[in-house]
Design goal:
It is a single chain. The chain has about 350 residues and is of the alpha/beta class. The protein has one domain: TIM Barrel, CATH 3.20.20. The longest helix has 18 residues. The protein has a 4-stranded mixed beta sheet. Strands 5-6-7-8 form a 4-stranded parallel beta sheet. The protein is built from 14 helices and 11 strands.
Length: about 350
């Protein structure tokens, strides 16, 4: 498979025939996977706090500490959510929250240790923004912070907080959040200590086509160096209840936009094996279509999800819904774990 340049990727995104693009992406997917299997994971998003000092303009989830609906979940509440997940066949919990200035590294370590002492489940948690916050708060290096969390039970890191890896865009949509390079540095450090992570991209706000391709290039370049990304997950900016939409006239990304980004991601990211559909932002039907545009993974059952829901969008489906959706379009559904090992075929 010949590697394409950023200029070629930009042409594909802006000008390539839609059907030719789908065909090329699908051919590459089959080269990489050589079967009709579509994977998914059974897990739950646990947002341990919605208090956040970053106040990103694209986010409807964050709250100030004094807000009536601000919260920090108790350990007992988190344990209950984990137990419900395990009963439903879950193998992973995704723990993410706001950048809460009232929490320190002892809180995170204590939470991880208490979960691991009770449950056999993979903890996929704490985005680079949370890692960077703890590093600065305690005057620790990224490596020291990550090793401390890993020793306490953190298994892998989600790619949240990447948005678009363009500091021009970030200065507008998330001026208080970590920079593009800081996000990449946290991920590189995680990979260097043997932690796998995912990579993400939120597009459809104020970025250019060139910035989308630059984002993909940053991910591909780091993957060349570390090999630590297990999957790439793009999704579209969700407009509801966000400050960004009040300030900028942003047209929502279309289904065609989303499918083109999925396809170009599959073609360009030749060193990342898995491309994940985002049914939670796109809906079940469009997620099915992505399977013909290069995606090979259906993501998570997402027993619970709060961040996207805060924008007013709520797609809720069961494991059986995912299994049926995959079968309906001619593929074989397989439950996987965090590291894409197959658990069970349906």
């Amino acid at each position: 498979m010949k590697r394409i340049s950023t200029d070629e990727a930009l042409f594909l995104l802006k000008k390539e025939d839609f059907h030719k693009l789908a065909k090329r992406a699908n051919e590459i997917k089959r080269e990489l996977h050589n079967n009709d299997i579509v994977t998914f994971i059974v897990d739950r998003n646990i947002n341990y706090t919605n208090i956040c000092i970053n106040k990103c303009k694209f986010c409807a989830f964050h709250r100030d500490g004094q807000d009536d609906d601000a919260y920090i979940l108790s350990k007992e509440e988190i344990f209950k959510k984990i137990e419900e997940t395990i009963v439903l066949g879950g193998t992973q919990i995704l723990i993410q929250g706001g950048i809460n200035p009232g929490l320190d590294i002892d809180y995170y370590k204590g939470l991880l240790e208490s979960i691991k002492s009770r449950y056999k489940i993979n903890i996929h948690g704490f985005s680079p923004a949370e890692i960077e916050f703890l590093s600065k708060k305690h005057n620790l290096s990224y490596q020291e912070t990550l090793l401390s969390l890993k020793e306490s039970g953190l298994d892998s890191i989600p790619g949240g907080g990447a948005e678009i890896l363009s500091d021009r865009v970030r200065a507008i949509i998330s001026p208080s959040k970590i920079s593009s390079q800081e996000w990449l540095n946290v991920m590189e450090t995680a990979h260097s200590i043997g932690m796998k992570t995912t990579a993400t991209m939120m597009f459809g706000s104020i970025e250019s086509y060139e910035e989308i391709i630059s984002h993909l290039d940053s991910i591909r370049t780091l993957q060349d160096k570390t090999g630590g990304f297990t999957a790439f997950i793009p999704w579209t900016f969700q407009r509801g209840n966000t400050k960004l939409v009040k300030e900028y006239d942003i047209k929502p990304a279309s289904a065609v936009d989303y499918l083109k980004v999925i396809a170009v991601s599959r073609i360009f990211l030749d060193n990342i094996r898995n491309i994940q559909a985002s049914w939670v932002t796109q809906g079940l039907k469009l997620a099915q279509v992505t399977l013909f545009f290069g995606a090979n993974d259906f993501g998570s059952t997402m027993i619970e999800e709060n961040v996207v829901r805060s924008t007013g969008l709520s797609n809720i489906i069961s494991m059986n819904d995912i299994i049926y959706a995959i079968k309906q379009v001619g593929f074989r559904p397989v439950q996987r774990d965090t590291y894409y090992n197959h658990i069970k075929e349906f």
